[in-house]
């Protein structure tokens, strides 16, 4: 339930409360379905790898429309990725659907409560969702001459390779951190991807040191660990669009502390995190080396450039 709430919370993070609630309500059923799909496919690499590749490609194609739609797609892919990685028994598929959906519904309820409490800001005209423009962007970018289409195929393939890697290496407990790294660092542009690779490595190192220190300091104090997890989550949301290295440090702290609360020694979890992150960084970097963007496509290469709000400019 908490994981569903975490992923849905990323959706519409930059929007006023009412718009954010609408985006989160739209994504919640998809996050729940992805969790159920992960339970159905996570027990077999023959099912997990192609499923992750297809869902990842669809999510990556969201960049053709806007960053906000892309984040919504990434949230759905995240739900599938984590659900597969946890190897939830097929018999618990309905539970995965229910609890992920309930977690997302809690985020929607909280956004509506914030709106009711007085956050009545409205989405500005140029930032409002335009279905016609979205459909046009999706259709016109459906070509390999488009950076968005290339990114979608590159992204889905890399996620599939990352999923296959943890199966081949036998990293069943935390192997999903390999595709998780790919999901957060691989972007449509080579320069942005390179920057995120460097920041991911730095942020992960900071987070590992911080999480390990907190684990030894807090020991088995459940209340203190819960507070630390809450603070780490808050910083993850707060730093996502501000500083990627700090976001990575916060989310790494959350992941390692969460593993610690579930009974795994923090040092072991930290080592797994470092190993998986290094592999994910290598796969993401290789993805651009093996298949770059089209030449002369401009910054982004899309048919119809994106405005800061993500809506296609005309």
Structure description:
The chain has about 325 residues and is mainly alpha-helical. The chain has 2 domains: about 1-125 and about 130-140, no CATH class; about 140-305, no CATH class. Helices cover about 70% and strands about 0% of the residues. The protein has helices at about 1-10, 15-40, 45-60, 65-85, 95-115, 130-140, 145-170, 175-185, 190-220, 220-240, 245-260, 265-290. The longest helix has 29 residues, at about 190-220. The radius of gyration is 19 Å and the shape is globular. Residues about 295-314 have low confidence and may be disordered.
Features:
single chain; 314 residues; mainly alpha; 2 domains; 12 helices; 71% helix; globular
Sheet with most strands: none
Total separate domains = 2
The count of DSSP E runs of length 2 or more, i.e. the number of strands, is 0
Enumerate the spans where pLDDT stays under 50 for 5 or more consecutive residues: 297-314
SSE diagram, text form:
Elements (H helix, E strand, L loop, with lengths): L1 H9 L6 H25 L3 H16 L6 H19 L7 H24 L14 H10 L6 H22 L8 H9 L4 H29 L3 H18 L4 H18 L4 H25 L24
Helix pairs in contact: 1-2, 1-4, 1-5, 2-4, 2-5, 3-4, 3-7, 4-8, 7-8, 7-12, 8-12, 9-11, 9-12, 10-11, 11-12
Provide a concise account of the structure shown.
The protein has 314 residues and is an all-alpha fold. The protein is built from 12 helices and no strands. It has 2 domains: 1-123 and 132-140, no CATH class; 142-303, no CATH class.
